[in-house]
């Protein structure tokens, strides 16, 4: 069994949904050594999240942002946690809805994603800063 792990920093991006599949693969080239295995990507933050979805049409990512902005609005007077601004608590809620990690199968040294799938960084803050990911891959 081979096990590889790498922590990476993603540069700050604007609020929205951003494809990061290439950055993940570039940061852990040892994935090519795994014939059959798994890769977990974990985000070390509570106001951003990860998901897998459409990698071709950028309007899908814009529609994701539109949907989550409507589903979890800012400036709700019922929120008690607003220390860092009106996007603070909504960001935590959105991150919990989407999750902090994704698991991707590895087959013959490559991610076994579907043809139209990619990994998204879901940035829920207006100014979230750099984001840290822990990437762990294992297999035979």
Automatic annotation (TrEMBL):
Coiled-coil segments: none
- Taxonomically, which superkingdom? Bacteria
> Record's InterPro entries?
UPF0047_YjbQ-like, YjbQ-like_sf
Family from the record: Belongs to the UPF0047 family.
What name has this protein been given in UniProt? Secondary thiamine-phosphate synthase enzyme YjbQ
Organism field: Mucilaginibacter antarcticus
